[in-house]
Amino acid sequence: MAAQNDFNIPVPENKSIDEGFDFSQRGQWLRAAVLGANGGLVSVASLMMGIGAVKHDSKAMILTGFAGLVSGACSMAIGEFVSVSSQLDIEVSHMKRNGESNDERESEKLPNPMQAAAASAIAFTFGAMVPLLAASFIVDHKVRLAVVVTAVTIALAVF
Question: Which end of the chain has fewer CB atoms at under 10 Å, N or C?
Fold first, then answer.
């Protein structure tokens, strides 16, 4: 059975808690996922509320939200990829400067830009689905706006 650290997170058998198990790899995609989900919630809900304030048509509101979902997920993924790629370049450069061998480089966990980009895009999509689903089944304009605000507020509190 795996040991656990102070946060009740299992530590693999080959690492003791005293060795200071490195959770930085998990932190990269977790940070990207949290920021992506919050971004999806807030930006798509804001777009939908803006359109909903001007136009009472639910189709226009949902279409705008879907367009925001697609563009926002792409934007978040590209931004996260560039950010983590820059971090990776800095870490590799630092390792070369310190003269670390390839064996040391292979054993060290380096950030993964693709993993962070995917986590960010997927989380943005799930976050954006909250206001989209909240608005999809409500016919009355004012009730639809209230339901979107309520659903997004609850989801933000959960995140």
Answer: N
Query: Which residue has 């939908």 as its token pair?
Result: 48
State the number of CA atoms in the 13 A half-sphere of 10 facing the CB: 5
Burial class, 116, CB count within 10 angstroms (exposed 0-12 / middle 13-18 / buried 19+)? buried
pTM of the model: 0.77
Please say whether the beta carbons of 81 and 113 come within 8 A: yes
The whole-angstrom distance between residue 78's C-alpha and the CA centroid of its chain comes to 12
Taking the C-alpha atoms of residue 37 and residue 24, their distance in angstroms, rounded to an integer, is 20
What values do phi and psi take at 87, rounded to 5?
-65, -40
Low-confidence ranges of the chain (pLDDT < 50): 1, 16-18, 107
Task: Output the CA–CA distances (angstroms, integers) from residue 155 to 6, 11, 41, 56, 60, in the order listed.
Answer: 27, 30, 8, 24, 23
- 11: helix, coil or strand? strand
- For the beta carbon of residue 30, count every other beta carbon within 10 angstroms: 14
Nearest to 136 by CA among 48, 69, 16: 48
